[in-house]
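Hello again,

I reread your note about wanting to compare the complex against the isolated chains. To keep things tidy I'm splitting this into two emails, and this first one only covers the full assembly. Below are the input lines as submitted, including protein chains and any nucleic acid or small-molecule components. They are followed by the predicted structure of everything together. The single-chain runs will come separately.
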Amino acid sequence: MKNLKLKSARAAKDLSQGDLAQMCGVSRQTINAIEKGDYNPTINLCIAICKALGKTLDELFWEDEKDER
Amino acid sequence: MKNLKLKSARAAKDLSQGDLAQMCGVSRQTINAIEKGDYNPTINLCIAICKALGKTLDELFWEDEKDER
DNA sequence: ATTATTTGTAAAATATACTTGACATAGTGT
DNA sequence: ACACTATGTCAAGTATATTTTACAAATAAT
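Full-complex prediction:
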């Protein structure tokens, strides 16, 4: 369950995973794992990502998640 | 930095913190802490809360968070 | 061919989300 | 007065998000 909306919003701004990670204050692996769908970030990180990419929560994280907790 | 949108959306459905917790599969204290603003839930939990209350992420969790990470 | 950048992935350590159990308080009803 | 429900809070434990270090593979450029 990859997050392709995130991946494409990042591509649209021509940012690498490392760039975005730095803008959000997290590690590159964290961004990678989120795009890959491996886990379940905190909402504050999601908000930081949204602000870095000029999107809202609904645009990047709503729908197509139906996992546990 | 309380989450009053959540508190009022819950009240609008006449649910106790315990009721909502049960619908989301978490403990009552977790809901209490989120409303109180103590922490930083995961996005999957936010999504579960939104679905239980018939709201979207933007409606309950966007704006007025400016904390760390 | 080689250098540089990006991405995918993994294991060990640390920070923190979340649970369980418990107690105190306020409100509502009998 | 007593029972009941909802909320606020705390301390100790467990689960998991996130970091750090590291390595391999793919792409683009020279």
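For quick reference: Chain A has five helices and no strands.

B.
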